[in-house]
Sequence to fold (342 residues):
Amino acid sequence: MQLALGMGYWSSGPPADAAEQIATAERLEFDSIWTAEAYGSDALTPLAWWGAATERIGLGTSICQISARTPAAVAMAAMTMDHLSGGRFRLGLGASGPQVVEGWYGQPYPKPLARTREYVEIVRRIFARDEPVSFDGEHYQLPYPGGTGLGKPLKSTIHPLRTDIPIYLGAEGPKNVAMTAEIADGWLPLFFSPADNDFYHEALSEGFARPGARRGFDDFDVAAVVPVVIDDDVEAAADMIRPMLALYAGGMGAKEANFHLNVFARMGFADACASIQDHYLNGDKKAAIAAVPTQMVEAVALVGPPAKIADDLAAWDESVVNTLVVSGPPPLLEGIAAIVQG
Fold:
């Protein structure tokens, strides 16, 4: 199992020790660093800025939201990043949810799986640069139909450094995970629990078995975001994770359409999630945080003293996950690296 560094998206501003985190990750031979976006900082600009100070480590987006950019725009950015980084770029994409897509981007949210499939196909055609790109899908059309009538199929002016830039997808539900296994090069689960490994193994297997699937378990990367807090006091460590889980399970999405809550409900925390969401949507964030059980934290995070984390890692090592995407200050990165590599 390999380690990666998750830089996430910003809160009020860029993390003060970002450069030190990334330098530490590269020194410790982490596989890659990943940036994210929601409705604030974007994923691509920080990755380019910070990536310019690196030489070896992979550079990935976890995730670029497909409603934020047309397929052509994200393909242009990916090819540009791949050239500038010497072939180290990985394109992570995701559909986000209706609250962000409709509320922030002002875009419709129809059929996210079908839309993602079309999006990826167009991006791959642009990467291939075999011919001018035209596409007549349900959700995307190139050239644009109607308008002035002057639009014509075009081919990228730049030659991609790699025509097979890896594409990862953020996915949570079983149908989305299966499609990810079918059409992508990697999966970026946000809340993965080794206890649910059989569930996800089955979904991935279904996708790999489909006609035309690109990869299989041997060459497909599952890079899971795994919060880590090393502390002799397990409850104190869990307290560091509870606010984030309360946000995603309780406040990230509408009451009837919170995909993150559904993930935790499948793990067996449906009652806890109902309480968390009620408190969060009623404006009582402290009660929502307090309602996150320690078992829910331990299901998706590594918390506690080094010996406990080393024991807990065994379940992750036996799962479909290949890469642990961790985040934190340089001492934490050094600590988890020592546990994983030791």
